[in-house]
Amino acid sequence: xxxxxxEDDERMAVLLKRALEEDGYAVDVTxxxxxxxxxxxxxxxxxxxxxxxxxxxxxxxxxxRLRESRRWAPVLMLTARAGVDQRIFGLDAGADDYLAKxxxxxxLSARLRALVRxxxxxxxxxxxxxxxxxxxxxxxxxxDGKRVELTAKEFALLELLMRxxxxxxxxxxxxxxxxxxxxxxxxxxxxxxxxxxxxxxDRPFGRDDVQTIRGAGYRLRDPxxxxxxxxxxx
Amino acid sequence: MLTYLLAxxxxxxxxxxVFTLVLGSGLRASVDAGLQTRANxxxxxxxxxxxxxxxxAPRIGTALGEGDxxxxxxxxxxxxxxxxxxxxxxxxxxxxxxDLASRRSGTWTSYLGGEQFRVLTQPVNxxxxxxxxxxxxxxxxxxxxxxxxxxTLYFAVPVGLLLVGLGAWLLSGAALKPVxxxxxxAQRLSEHDxxxxxxxxPTTDSLNQLARTFNTLLDRLHGSLERQRALVADAGxxxxxxxxxxxxxxxxxxxxxxxxxxxxDSITHARAEVSRLAILAEDLLLLAHADGGAPLIRRQLTDIxxxxxxxxxxxxxxxxxxxxxxxxxxGKAPLIGELDPVAVRRVLDxxxxxxxxxxxxxxxxxxxxxxxxxERGPVMFALTVSDTGPGFPAEFLPQAFERFxxxxxxxxxxxxxxxSGLGLAIVDTLVKAHGGAVSATNPxxxxxxxxxxxxxxxxxxxxxxPVAGSASTAxxxx
Lengths: 234, 478
What we know:
- Chain A is an alpha/beta fold.
- Chain A has eight helices and eleven strands.
- Chain A has helices spanning 10-22, 33-42, 59-68, 84-93, 105-118, 152-163, 171-178, 189-202; strands spanning 2-6, 26-30, 47-51, 75-79, 97-100, 127-129, 132-135, 140-143, 146-148, 210-213, 217-220.
- In chain A, the strands form three sheets. A five-stranded parallel sheet of chain A has the order 2-1-3-4-5, with helices on both faces. A four-stranded antiparallel sheet of chain A has the order 6-7-8-9, with helices on one face.
- By secondary structure, chain B is of the alpha+beta class.
- Chain B has three domains: 2-147, Beta-Lactamase, CATH 3.30.450; 206-291, Helix Hairpins (Orthogonal Bundle); 300-477, 2-Layer Sandwich (Heat Shock Protein 90).
- Chain B has helices at 2-47, 97-102, 140-188, 206-253, 260-291, 304-314, 316-322, 341-358, 423-433, 464-477; strands at 59-60, 71-76, 82-86, 89-90, 106-112, 115-126, 129-138, 300-303, 325-329, 336-339, 364-372, 380-387, 437-441, 449-455.
- Classes of the chains: A alpha/beta, B alpha+beta.
- The interface between A and B is medium-sized, with 24 and 24 residues.
């Protein structure tokens, strides 16, 4: 397992490197934000420990740019500025965990193990499917650069379709993931919301991306990967 | 509200009663005056013997229509007989037998034929003894008038009062509307968010001024709140960073794989971290004291020259080992003035530490001090610390004296002399506590310079003569 430790306090960097190496990691260290971004883009790290305040470029910017360049290594922010606002800001920028200084090294080590377990699968902060984007943090949906207003349920349904874009989702699956127990599985609430998504997202833009697969369910067409729905059914 | 209405009603009733009383007595007085005039002319007639038996003879109890009689005159002769009457037919005897017997003079109210009359009698010397003249005036007219007035007032005054009250209420409501809005604004301001404003009424009266004053106060409070928040946030960061290093240092030091040398190394680093924390805590406490308005300095008459020499000497060791030349220029005149020697020593210490960090080997640091005696105002102690280092970064200069602003980008902790970011802020605070001013510049000849001026007492006393001499020669040189 290879780690990148970004820490501008030299003594702290020395201590982290040594202790993490004793834990069995290979550790690269840098104290500069811009250099950290370059290293993160060039190498496939298993996890990144990132200080918030850095010369050159701050940690929040580093993690944002890493995600922009589709680098999904788990990032643990380690910073002395750990107010609630900062933590929300950091996590929404794309960090996976947040630990405030001063910290317990045992906890840092355990959190790193947990992050490495999750792996570096694709975890975009802002979902995108073609010209359709969805930002769960600011609850914003845009199509073709234009803002589209959705209700909370429409938003949740679209988020599910986008996370599984290209996949056919059965009515029951959608009902289980967007609605709670109180809903009768035989109700047509899913069809109604699919209809309103089409009204808001497809028709004004002349598209037909929210598709009905007869006898199977619904799917959001994946513009990057336009395979036949039959071969990709779950 | 109810009390107000009750008081208004009581006042209105009392006012109307008093008014009608005054009106009634005024009307009565004028009736009395008229009666007197008529009695006097009747008396003159009696004296001159102008009284004749009227035809037909005056009679009492005739069928004169009641209410028609508005006034009457009657003259009784010495025998008590009605000698003359006008009108000659009276509905009833104007005077009773007792009235006649007493022959008295007077004015009273009596009833005649069922009507209220004001009656005046006056004895007069007739041709055959004492006659009596009597004049009367029906009071129904003036009674009607005062009743009418009373009725009108009892109706009109409450209505008028109500209208006036309503008008006053509406008017005061309109006048107080801005106050109400300001009150609402003020209520919405929370203690933690002084960023809000209250609405300034679009007028130029004292209300607008009140709102402006209030907003200025809010601005100041907001500013100080923001500064305090920033300081707390910065202080939190500055304290957490060394604490984090310390904690990690100690936690990892006891790992089983560490050797005895590793342990010694960790303890050495931990000690350095602790002493940095102690200095930081001291500095923060001083600034917190200054923020809280506590008196920071205690002035005393000080040999400033000796103070500077002592302070500079304490830095000679570091300067020598770094290969930096330390120069002092204090002139020949004795430097004596009133200031806090401990504070000024700390100021100079901080400036020298900063300079020693920046100046490369082979460079120099110059401490120049003098006393300035201006035409007016107090004697000023001027101190400049300049060096041959790289100078301040341009973007650092505007915020040089702000807390936790650092000229050096890297926050190396391995170098134990690294600044806390509070050195110049403390210089600024201590100089301002003396009523002085400090500035940081990059002189044209290179390097960095920090110059400060501190008032050290008025231009009288011990420091006056030698200082005045040196200042005047300096002036001539210019």
